[in-house]
């Protein structure tokens, strides 16, 4: 019988890493240079040494997994993996940090600086992509037979520059100098088709694509920690099946001769940098199909190579959909099983359904993917026919269960008949497809999963209640605690022992010690050192000097209306006005830090960035304010910048309108690093508060049900403005151009919607937010009490490791199907 997927640590197991190897390798590389070793040369030497060691471990892992017996293999399909830098993580995994430091020759910069020479691998937008990267870390560390599957984008997330207070997007060029973490796999190459026709012959359908590209595998290695296992992110790169059309070339038609190559290169050209509105563009659909088709062909080839029975492919393998972006997978798997492997419909569907599971990451209606049928038909004619057949059978099931309810049938159909918002166009609904094809569908926090079955998927949940569940997100403590905050990690070792490094739930032991005088003082010292590092970065980056003993109040994440950076900014303005009105009062000094990227076409988000800069110019130069308040926007938020910012935060802002933030994962990273949270009752904040004790969090604002009710009853933001003198003054100041630098029209576009509709209820939550911030100030005045609460926050975070999350998936989503 197939057993539940479980760590296979024996063959490439937990043995001590070979500590002596890296210095020799690195020295050799460094010795080849005659000039003084600059940071980038040191980086290259260390990276190639680490690569060599990891490549050996990777090969051993592959061999071990081939002999994994009947354990299911997990295939995690995602259009995004936001990996960040790898060398620091690799040295930690190899336990070679000290050796690496020692290997650096005289005159070389310190290891910390050397590591900064690595460009981030930013093949993701935000939360969804970073979650996938944390999962890979857990796959490797838990020893799970698995593959991450993604695309090798030449240009990842754009780099953000700020010019005159406005965001400028610059192309990301992470691959320019190549990547030492990649292992090209020339023997792994599959043909992916687009367009063309379907022929029916001898009882078999056969798709004859008009165009084909070759999908080339390039493996990105992912080291495990406390184990020799190394996991694989298999990235696909499209290449021309025929690199040059020589006939066209000889007749002098060079454009035509290079046509195929350009078409293939376009597929890997760039990551879609929008995480809010579906990119209803042909190139995106082609990218999604490239990922899906190459990954499934690879899966099937491996299954058969290892002697698997094609009928058992769904028992032996998991195909997990990270949101709907890879939701063509069930259609492609059906096509391969029906047309290429000759299974009948029922057998193919059983295997597909057994293999497939799906995670939903957002309820925002504007982010739900649908594709126009004429586009799907043109690019993927066979897949559309399969979707029709799936739908036909599925709707029969719906009709049998709910006779006569044609309204319900229309709501549940895979096809949007298009009377609605898309100008009458008929469309394929990817979320519906993912739900129908999957045996399990999960949300990413308790509240989100509940709202998912109450709203977005209510009809499906009535039909199949057992299909839906929650798996709360988590983050890897290797990167987000051990690597980002070694000072805090050392403090934890000293006071509760090192067990938490293997099993994060051991952090619970900190709770009983949190009130201690010594540990509190040590914690504040560690925090202060991290703040000094961030302050230095702020000085270098912006030329702004901030007080290191101020309260560092931080909101870093994608800029979105629902995340309400604007609410935070309104509160900053209120504080500014209050300071100016009474500069002599005993103010808690604050440094308010923002960072985050706006999608390039998202006007409201860009307006927020502009307003932050406009307000900062006024506040930071007002002599009446001095160092009581500084407002900082750090450009180009990224994984590596997060590793600098998060350990330095005293206060974490998690202030989305309740019911909108599916989970959040930044919230977890902050709390794990001893920041207190000011937050709404939303996403995973709720579970965090319950784990650490609700009184340990500064909770404010409407709850999700209250927010829904207020909106249903007809919400009028002006009533709240009229009811709050402070809010009125803040709005007036913006409206009257106090931050407009001589251009009174400047903030109209941002303000008007707030006064008229305010869909994210900023006005309704403002007073409550201000009160929560007053409670923050009050606790800050008592450093010992603050430190004790911060330590209790950390103590409560044991459940938010991505190891726990992956354990949940293994038990509840990826367990083998019953006979
Ligand atoms: C949508 C699109 C639309 C087309 C262009 C590319 C693109 C990329 C991403 C998305 C969906 C983004 C959804 C997302 O990131 N959700 C976040 O997922 C996190 C991990 O579960 C969760 O913590 C956040 O609360 C949630 O916003």
Fold topology:
Layout: H1 21-31, H2 39-66, E1 73-77, E2 81-84, H3 87-94, H4 97-103, H5 111-115, E3 121-123, H6 127-142, E4 146-151, E5 159-163, E6 166-170, E7 182-194, E8 197-201, E9 204-208, E10 211-223, E11 230-240, H7 246-250, H8 254-257, H9 259-267, H10 282-305, H11 313-316, E12 317-322, H12 329-340, H13 345-355, E13 356-359, E14 370-372, H14 373-379, H15 381-401, H16 406-412, E15 415-416, E16 427-429, H17 430-437, E17 440-443, H18 446-454, H19 458-463, E18 468-470, H20 477-483, H21 486-496, H22 517-542, E19 551-556, H23 565-581, E20 590-595, H24 603-621, E21 629-633, H25 639-645, E22 651-654, H26 666-672, E23 676-679, H27 685-692, E24 698-699, H28 704-712, H29 717-722, H30 725-735, H31 748-756, H32 762-780, H33 783-795, H34 802-812
Parallel strand pairs: 1-4, 1-12, 4-11, 12-13, 13-17, 17-18, 19-20, 19-22, 20-21, 22-23, 23-24
Antiparallel strand pairs: 2-3, 5-6, 7-10, 8-9, 10-11, 14-16, 15-16
Helix pairs in contact: 1-2, 1-4, 2-3, 6-34, 10-12, 12-13, 12-15, 14-15, 21-22, 22-33, 23-24, 23-30, 23-32
The structure holds ligand 26V.
Low-pLDDT regions: 1-19
Task: Output the strand order for the largest sheet.
Answer: 7-10-11-4-1-12-13-17-18
Per CATH, the architecture of the largest domain is: 3-Layer(aba) Sandwich
How far is the first residue's CA from the last residue's CA?
9 Å
Task: Compute the CA-based radius of gyration.
Answer: 27 Å
